[in-house]
Amino acid sequence: MAETAANIMNVTDKPFVWTRPVAPGLHGTPGAPGVTALWRENLAFATLTVRRGQEAALALAAAREHAVSLPDGPFAAQGKGHQGKGFVCFGTGPGRWLACSEEATDLAGDLAATLGSTATVTAQDDAYVAFDLSGPCVPELLAKLVAIDLDPTVFPAGSVAVTSTAHMGLMLWKLDADRVRLLVGTSLAASFSRTLAASALEYGFRLEAGRGTGRG
Amino acid sequence: MSRLATGGLIDRSRPLAFTFDGRRYTGFAGDTLASALLANDVKLVGRSFKYHRPRGIVSAGPEEPNALVELRSGARREPNSRATVTELYEGLEATSQNRWPSLDLDILSVNRLVAPFLGAGFYYKTFMWPSSFWEKLYEPFIRRAAGLGRAAEGDDPDHYEKANAFCDVLVIGAGPAGLMAAKTAALAGARVILADEDALPGGRLNAETHEIDGAPGHAFAAATIAELGALPNVRIMTRTSVFGVYDGGTYGALERVSDHLREPLPFQPRQRLWRIVARRAVLAAGAIERPIVFGGNDRPGVMAAGAVETYANRYGVAAAKRLAVFANNDGAWRSAFAARAAGIEVAAIADVRPTIAPALLERAKALGIRVIAGGVVAGTAGKTLARIDIASGSRTDRIAVDGLAVSGGWSPNVHLTCHHGGRPVWREDIAAFVPGALPPGLSVAGAAGGTFSLAGAFREGFEAGAAAARDTGFAAPALDAPRAEDESVALAAFWHVAGSRGPAFVDPQNDVTAKDVAIAHKEGFRSVELLKRYTTLGMATDQGKTSNVTGLAIMAELTGAGIEATGTTIFRPPFTPVAIGALAGHHRGTEFRPVRLTPTHGWADEQGAVFIETGAWLRAQYFPRAGESDWLESVNREVKAVRSGVGMIDVSTFGKIDLQGPDAGVFLDRVYINTFSTLAISKARYGVMLREDGMVMDDGTTARLGEQHYVMTTTTANAAKVFQHLEFCLQVLWPELDVQLASISEQWAQIAIAGPRAREVLVGVVDPGTDVSDSALPFMGVAEARVLGGVKARIFRVSFSGELGYEIAVPARRGEDLARALMAAGAPFDITPYGVEALGVMRIEKGHVSGNELSGQTTAGDLGLGRMASTKKDYVGRIMAARPGLTDPERPSLAGFRPVNPAERLRAGAHFVPVGGPADAAHDQGYMTSVAYSPNLGHWIGLGLIRRGQERIGEKVRAHDPVRGGDVEVEICAPCFLDPKGERLRG
């Protein structure tokens, strides 16, 4: 495939390659980065889909087993897992949730054990890559990525959006007042890292690798 | 120099050097290119579109029809840049356009001599016949002669981006009405965005001399902006043009981030496209002064009256040394007085009205300005303006001037109000179109709504801001309106000086004259829409901002219908030109769209794979080795390696869908033509699904992992479509079924190994004790197992290549580990990684259909899969697949093709025609869908769809390829070239 000379990705002194992820380190405006992204591949994920007619039973089981009130919409709710390994689940559609854990090793297995009679649980540990964003320019950066009103009065901490950016599916989760977690499909992580960097170069962009730096 | 000694909102301590047509000039920070050119006495700035007439600057704003230049050079060259809104920067390079060899001496200005033949409808009348002349003669000629600037030839070195903003109240325009609206809404507590296309907000307050609350207008504007800027709920966006109104309170805006700089600052985009979502919006876009049409009105030096005033007040530039004014309204008199106050000699004011307000007459007298009431300009002279003739009654005055300030009144900027189909309404008292039906959530304040006085603008701005705040849930504050003049804006409608000398331009950008309007009238093109298309009036970059109303007014005079009955064309987005680059944002070049990388991408990259885009994915096409001269050599090696030993390919790109629930089997029976509810656990089956219209939608294997658990694979191309289809079926068609779907395409890496040695390789990666023997894992068997020391895996004994094959799925992040482990385990058998080319060759050798055959135009029967369809159940597409047209035995159906002369190459896309018969559409029998060179057979092979194909085995036809000039005799054969009994699969 021929490289195209004129390319936003070449505005940096470390030209990005369209078949590779952005290299870890500081990109764009020098100095203290306006945006720092932590590329994380060590989170556990599972999708939870309610079985037909089991809405009430699932809610009960979730409350009983995990002390979680399954959110009825795009919000995150904290749950307790086995052996104190917490997880968060947020609504991604009617009767559907994505559970995410920084601790559990077999999140899908754990949830299937407790909720499997009322919901279908599917492991998605490898399906998503997370980018945890922090820094003073995160709001400006996000304005370039998603067509969602992220004003704190409209989108408080704990809010979630299932949306898209630059033709890529994206889940956006406001972890707290200062941090945002973006989830993208694993196969799109390299492309997304370039979209992220291209949009954040003007603020100074630091990419930190969590476990692994992805493919390529 | 025409720079005034004092005044202007420019920074005289910051001189800026620039060039125009290679000559060096100096301006100041705060200048536009237009004001700096005028300050340097440059009056001739361009040549007109059709007649190449010399043209000068006529406005001081975005409406400029004439002063279009090429800005910058090389790859940054930007044609048709309006000098009037181009902010001056150090080192600015501008070039006049549409002239040769020079602006001063232009050869194509001979067009003026043939002007009588270039009138309205010229192209339509002249370039009619013979039609064969179009391509060679007419089109090149028109392209050379017409058009404005030249686009840059290199790739744009700058980048563009897009962003989103949200607010309660969007205020469009930061003139007096907009400032007031923004301030009112902001103080009420609403989230406000105030957007203005100018670098310096304030609108007319910066251009005119008003006193507001005892301070100059521009100081009031600056103070208000500072006040707004300090509020946390206000965002001020300068250099930002709101260009379109879309659905749901969405507004398009273009921020010119770096256009005022020689080059963007590091990492800054040149422009940023904003999508602003506002619950309410206030349009305070002001108004544009329109000309009066008279003979010789396009001479450089003829300018809008308000522009003369703007150049004097805002830029400290005398647009003329000796000025005359020609108007039909009171406002232009104030422009004349302002010019006089700035030190410009005003020789005369000619007003078409016989009676003038006494206050204006007194002031003119006090300033020593001659007044010609009931006077019109009957002609002009000079290459740049040197003289005008003013006719009043029977008398003609010849006055030497180098500037003529013209005002035919003001046209409200109603453009955005039309973007939802609203039609402007004619208001006789101000002789202007005002907004009609408004887009939902949008209100209008000030001059944009036809309220031209300053006091009126403040009042309406306050009201609109307060209403918008209330509508979005905020209590409007009590505010004292600034004290300002309620100045007179009286006018008498007047459009065209009939009988004036020389061509009278209605639309100077398109060289449309009053005579052209008359021709259109005479030839029956009288509706405003036809007038526009026939004469090109109001087209091109300015979209008729100064010419539309005068043009249709002249038409209305000719038809006698009146302007109200004549109506107006309406406006579509964008309000001002928007570069395609800004609409594209980052999506250019290789980033045109995102690419998906397979789990083994990094490994394949290491192996030197050549990649190819397949849908959104980037897949290894082939793996060249040292010494191989072309792709075919590599592919032949890969194919032979698989057929004789073992090969490996990443097939993670297939769509993978997890289906669970008690009704999963029933559900699959309804979406596939064949039956899946009877599939044994730990077995896979090939399935075909149809669209509702009976055509094949997709195929793939689906495996049963448990009583209530299936895993479906789809083709790479249709992964999203199939998932969407299944969701539709579940949510809409059969909501009673208890089935849960999850896409697991991203979760699982899947690698296929194929070839006689495949099992031996598999043994090398599964954990000890895993039985993968033929009896434990037979053809179409499925096993959940552990590989690589405890990694969960699913092993499917399926094959696309026709060899003994397995697909091994592991969690995506272990895909690369699996690839390396397979390579290691396969080393003794010389395992060969292969790409999608080799995969394609092998599937064609086996006659397996793929994307080329699953074209959306083929039925299961066409593809030889008709016998798979169950007759014992219903499924999507069953009824429609039985339509006579789809069961017609004459339909082209799948067959194999081999060249009669084995040395000949086949080409996909070739059409089948009879041997010895004509090669035309009437004898077309079908076409070749896929071809490959088979290294096993030593010749080219093909699959294709040919009429009654399955009955014509052995027959010969021609594969005719008029595009690439091929005509090859081929023999129809069964669509399987290798191992027709499938013995290798079961090995």
TrEMBL record, chain A:
Domain of life: Bacteria
Name of the protein in its database record: Sarcosine oxidase subunit gamma
UniProtKB/TrEMBL annotation, chain B:
Gene3D superfamilies, sorted: 2Fe-2S iron-sulphur cluster binding domain, sarcosine oxidase, alpha subunit, N-terminal domain, FAD/NAD(P)-binding domain, Probable tRNA modification gtpase trme, domain 1
Aminomethyltransferase C-terminal domain segment(s): 894-979
UniProt entry tagged with the keyword Isomerase: no
Domain FAD/NAD(P)-binding: 168-421
Domain SoxA A3: 504-585
InterPro entries for the chain: 2Fe-2S-bd_N (IPR042204), FAD/NAD-bd_sf (IPR036188), FAD/NAD-binding_dom (IPR023753), GcvT/YgfZ/DmdA (IPR028896), GcvT/YgfZ_C (IPR029043), GcvT_C (IPR013977), GCVT_N (IPR006222), Sarcosine_oxidase_asu (IPR006277)
Stretches assigned to the GCVT N-terminal domain: 601-873
Magnesium in keyword set: no
Chain segments annotated as coiled-coil in the UniProt record: none
PANTHER family reported for this sequence: AMINOMETHYLTRANSFERASE (PTHR43757), AMINOMETHYLTRANSFERASE, MITOCHONDRIAL (PTHR43757:SF2)
Similarity annotation: Belongs to the GcvT family.
Name listed for the protein in its UniProt record: Sarcosine oxidase subunit alpha family protein
Species, as recorded: Ancylobacter crimeensis
